Each structure stands twice: as C-alpha cells, then as structure tokens.
Amino acid sequence: MTDSRLRVGIVGTSWWTDSMFLPALASHRDARVVALCGRRAGPARDLASRWDVEHVFTDPHEMIRSGQVDAVIVASANDSHHPVTMDALDHHLHVLCEKPIGLDAAQADEMAARADEVGVTTMVPFTYHYMPTNRWLKRLVDDGYLGRHFHVNMRYTSGYARDGRYTWRHDRELAGSGVIGDLGSHWLHLARWLFGEIEAIGALAARLTPPGARPDGAPYEATEDSAAMTVRFTSGAYGVLHVSAVCWEGTELGQMHHLVAHGEDGTLESTVDWSTRQEVRGVKAGVTGPVDVLPIPDDIWAGVRRESVHDTYRDVFRTTESMARAWVSAAVAGRPVQPDLAEGARIQTLVDAAVASSAAGGALIDV
C-alpha cells in the first residue's frame, strides 16, 4: 500500500525543532518527517535517530532537490530563510518559514510573490496567534466587546539577552534586526490580527547590555535588545508595543505577556506569566468595580492542559490543529492557511520601518 502522507523535510535541528515541530508532526496522520538538515552531520544524525527520520542532510538545497520531500520547514538562522525558501518554492514545495522571513522587506516580498505564483501552501508560525488567551481576545474584540477601539498597550518582556552571550540573534548581519524582529514581529502580528491594519509606526530602541564577543573574534554590529514601538491603526486607534530581552521576570520561562485595550464600550486585559497564570479580564463601560475574569471557553481550550502555561503551549502545537499541524492539513487539502508568507512579508515591512524609525530618532513612518 502506497504511503500518501505529506513528506516533510526540516531545515534546522535546534531545540525548537526537537520540542515543537517533530512532536507535532509525529502524531499527524497525514504527515511524515522524512528528512532533517543541520549544519553539523553528527547532531543531525542523532536527532534523526531519536525521531526515526530516514534521511539526513547538511545542505538544505540538496535536501530540496533530492525528490524526497513534498514540503519544507525552514527553522534555521534568519539569513538562511530567503535562499532556502526561494529554492523550495521554485521546486513547488509547500513551505513553513520561521519569522522574520527575510533579512529585509525586499526579501520577504519576493518570497510572498513567488509563493503566490506557484500556488503552494505556506505558513509563518507566529506562535502566540494560537494561544487560548489571544484566541479568546480575538473573539471578544470581533464580537464588539470594546466597541470603537481607542488604544492598546502590549508588553512582551523576557530576559534572554541579559547574560551578554553572543548568539546569531544578536548579530545584525545574520539576524537583520534584534528584538524588534524576534519579539516585535509577534506583537505586530497580534496587533494587526486583533485590531486591524497598521498605517504608521515609530520606535525607540537600544542595546542595553554589552554585546558578547563573536566566536571568530571578528567585529559585528550588535542588534537592539529593547524597543518601544508606537503604531497608528487605520481605524484611528493607536498602540504602544514594548518588547525587551533584558528583563528579569522570575518566571519559569523568564518572560511575561501583558495587554490592555480600551474602547468606547469597555476594557480588555490579558496576562500570561508563563507559570500558572493565563487569563483574560474585562469590564464594560459604565460598570464600577474590579475588572472581572472572563473564563476562556472550553472550545478554545480544545482539551489542552490548563494548569501550566508551558504545558498549554506545548499541547496547543502538539495536539490541536495549530501551526505546523494546521499547515500540513491545509497542504494536504490543497488550500491556503493563515498566517502565510504574505502576512510574514507585511510584518517584515513593519519591522523594517520600526528599525528605520529608531535610527532616525523615533518619528512615525507611514507604512
């Protein structure tokens, strides 16, 4: 009997591939991970052995052209996203590419345009799009809880840059941007998804921790590790999006998410502290008293564990039709899925504008 499952190859063998993509696809009835590609053959073979993956490559283009895969996940460093994705698209393979999808908007636009030409299924995995708190916020906003939207304050604070250790994420040549592209892209996507298109953006950003030495000793331009972005929506509402990688939060994963949105008809808040608290609160206009917890409905939880945010996060991507699993299902069905490369390109345009605004002192830039 012929195996008709979608044959997936993954570029990148980091902990993210190990903890997110491989478990998610191992349990998908229509997917089979058949190839892994890593820079070093040894670690790639070890990971492949643990997950019973047949083929191992050290060159992503060789994997793409091998005829062994129908779809490619690009989960490698930012500077590889454009060449690997373009090659996969040229071979008419379905593509899931991590954000930011390019080093700049020109690369991202080229990727989105090529995907549209060939008609394959693409995805950019903005992970927080799928979290129960944000899906509940989306439903409440769409159902009119806020009424006319006035403004939103969103904060994503983490501490992964506090130790000053060199990583490619801090190297502008390899990453394109720093925390604006790494964390800010998530927040820009969520802001657009929840509250509509952004027509102008400004930013103040800085490098607040000393950059670590590059392993080869060569000089490099260190990226920003903290940024505050101001956005204006086409609705006339505005937002302040603060992202930082230098905060000590004392939580299990060292990060916190906060959102407060105000509108003519009410206020919505959400908090995710990555230990036990993941909740949405709200109060309607004219009501005096504490902001009430608005329980997340069972259909949004979809059976995932609720006690720990970390467990919820893992379960969402490993057991529900979210992110890589949703991409596979859409590819098999021959239909598009969101967020796609076009969304990734739009976010890259906003990221580029925020970086340019910061360099120019923070003035708003029309986008």
Short description:
By secondary structure, the chain is of the alpha/beta class. The chain has 13 helices and 15 strands.
Secondary structure elements and their pairing?
Elements lengths: L5 E6 L3 H12 L4 E7 L3 H10 L4 E3 L2 H5 L6 E4 L3 H13 L3 E4 L7 H14 L3 E2 L8 H11 L6 E10 L13 H4 L3 H4 L1 H12 L2 E9 L19 E8 L4 E7 L10 E9 L2 E7 L5 E7 L7 E2 L4 H4 L7 H11 L3 H11 L7 H19 L5 E2 L1
Parallel strand pairs: 1-2, 1-4, 2-3, 4-5, 5-6, 7-10
Antiparallel strand pairs: 7-11, 8-9, 8-15, 9-10, 11-12, 12-13, 13-14
Helix pairs in contact: 1-11, 4-5, 5-13, 6-9, 9-13
Q: SSE string, helix = H, strand = E?
A: EHEHEHEHEHEHEHHHEEEEEEEHHHHE
Number of strands: 15
How much helix is in the residues? 25-40%
Beta-strand fraction estimate: 15-25%
Separation, N- and C-terminal Cα atoms: 53 Å
The largest sheet has its strands arranged as 14-13-12-11-7-10-9-8-15
| Most strands sheet | 9 strands, mixed
Low-confidence stretches: none
- Radius of gyration of CA atoms, rounded to a whole number: 21 Å
Shape summary: globular
Q: Which structural class matches the secondary elements?
A: alpha/beta
Number of helices: 13
